[in-house]
Amino acid sequence: MNFNFFLFLSSGTTEGRQKYVPFTKHSSQTTLQIFRLAAAYRSRVYPIREGGRILEFIYSSKQFKTKGGLTAGTATTHYYASEEFKIKQEKTKSFTCSPEEVISSGEYKQSTYCHLLLGLFFSDQVEFITSTFAYSIVQAFTAFEECWQDICIDVREGSLSSSRITLPKMRKAVLDTISPKPYLASKIEVACKKLESLDWFGLVPKLWPNAKYVYSIMTGSMQHYLKKLRHYAGDLPLVSADYGSTESWIGVNVDPSLPPEDVTFAVIPTFSYFEFIPIHRRKQDCNSAIDDFIEDEPVPLSQVKLGQEYEIVLTSFTGLYRYRLGDVVEVAGFHKGTPKLNFVCRRKLILTVNIDKNTEKDLQLVVDRGSQLLNKTGAELVDFTSHADIVNQPGHYIIYWEIKGDVEEGVLNQCCHEMDVSFVDPGYVVSRRTNSIGPLELCIVKRGAFRMILDYFVGNGAALSQFKTPRCTSNQVLVRILNDWTIKRFHSTAYC
Ligand code: AMP
To answer: Source organism's superkingdom (predicted)?
Structure first.
């Protein structure tokens, strides 16, 4: 593959829109550099055996050609198909369990089954378990709770369930790798029966007895999955993975022994030229749609202050000039002079469950599409807001509407469906297809609900003249008001 002519497709940052980001040799070198650096820091605390295996829940999507003939795809897709991915395995002396055909199949469920099967086939050699984002590990083990019996049959017989795995290339690659292991299958079967009675607590150490830790991005929007991950990991340490974006790598976790809640990322000053916009908050609610920050002049890396919050700006080697990443970070300390950053939140992101990223603007477009159907009936959308429900699994979006006029239920069902399919963010679409985000829910609230919300804000000191309905909220009081005032609920049937 020619590294000089490639475009990365970001999953969307400041605007929540995908962007083409040029890719050069420097980009691939920094990827290799940060992975080797992170592996070195991890091995100081949690040494692993040379030549061992990694159970990686990784998935790549399709690459495509732009009109101008350049190859484009997501950074991870490119990385898993690159030389660097192979070099990293050789340099860190740890090898992934799954062949390329499993990683790049494009069929999420089939890949997960094969990752699990191969992970168990090599279980004695697995040194750690990883994925890019923590939710993939949680999702894989949730799937395992359902399919472990079939996996045991396949381990015992060296076979591959023909109903579960239909892709010929993947079948061949997996069947070429495995062979019958009846003793191992019986061991797994006994362990799973026991685990089932324990609600799968401690699944990882039980099934992968030599695993030293679980490694993944567990900060930011992934923090929600920590609880379930801890449940599966039992007493194994959870190590939080590094901080980067499609546009540039940013920092490495130099304290792998810290729990994910306390992790910081030491900025690597050579990855990009970093600047930091000092920001001061008026409100504590990071998920508020109102971007309530006051900005100061940007400062270089050498002038950041401990305890201060900043928005990151980067000038990259691939041509981005003073690019605002849209992330809010806090300087939590220094490592040999370079700041250690605490990831705080996305500055303008409002709706997110896992890898999806939708801004206020995206939501507005979606609601416009949905309410067009409503307008045909003569009814009117008075106000709306939204909430990402991550308490119930799988997480999903709830959109609250206050309507003036009478609308038939059939029409509201259509509105709900229309909004679900109108979110074009690839993270959302993929997650909906794989059901890691559940169907969109439309809640119709009683007339006056938004007036109640206004009253609530004003009662808490907001200026009426400046009040803007929060388009997304995680404020518990607000969510309670909205739910108390809900009179009808609809669930999308899209992606079924
Ligand atoms: P992408 O647009 O797909 O390149 O996603 C990059 C964004 O993902 C960053 O700007 C962050 O908002 C988020 N992200 C990446 N790494 C981490 C991390 N370790 N902790 C929290 N958020 C992260």
So the answer is: Eukaryota
pLDDT of residue 1: 42
User: What distances in angstroms separate CA 453 from CA 76, 134, 138, 461, one per listed residue?
Assistant: 42, 34, 35, 13
Picking from 81-85, 117-121, 253-257, which range would have the lowest pLDDT averaged per residue? 81-85
Rounded distance between C-alpha atoms, residue 50 and residue 349, angstroms: 41
Read off the tokens for 293.
């920050």
- Decide if 97 contacts 55 (C-beta within 8 A): yes
The residue behind tokens 């007036």 is 451
Can you give the pTM of this predicted structure?
0.76
Cβ–Cβ < 8 Å for 377, 346: no
Structure tokens at 378: 């003569």
Atom number of ligand 1 nearest to Cα 13: 2
Is the CB of residue 160 less than 8 Å from the CB of residue 171?
A: yes
Q: Give yes or no for residue 393 CB within 6 A of ligand 1.
A: no
User: In sequence order, what are the beta bridge partners of 7?
Assistant: 22, 72
Dist CA 27 CA 33 (whole Å)? 10
The residues with which 340 forms a beta bridge, in sequence order, are 266, 333
User: Which atom from ligand 1 is nearest to the alpha carbon of 346?
Assistant: 12
Sheet of 64-65: strand order equals: 20-23, 6-9, 71-73, 64-65
Tens of pLDDT, residue by residue over 207-221, are 999 999 999 999 886
Please name which of 484, 485, 481 lies closest in space to residue 453, comparing C-alpha atoms.
481
- End-to-end, the C-alpha distance of the chain in Å comes to 37
b vs e for 386-410, b when ≥16 Cβ sit within 10 Å of the residue's Cβ? Answer: bbbbbeeebbbbbbbbbbeeebeee
DSSP-derived secondary structure for 95-136: EESS-HHHHTSS-HHHHHHHHHHHHHHTGGGEEEEEEEEHHH
In the block, tokens 């940060």 appear at 34
Question: Within its chain, how far is the Cα of 127 from the centroid?
Answer: 24
Binding site membership of 110 for ligand 1 (Cβ less than 6 Å): no
Whole-angstrom CA distances from 254 to 35, 68, 268 are 12, 41, 11
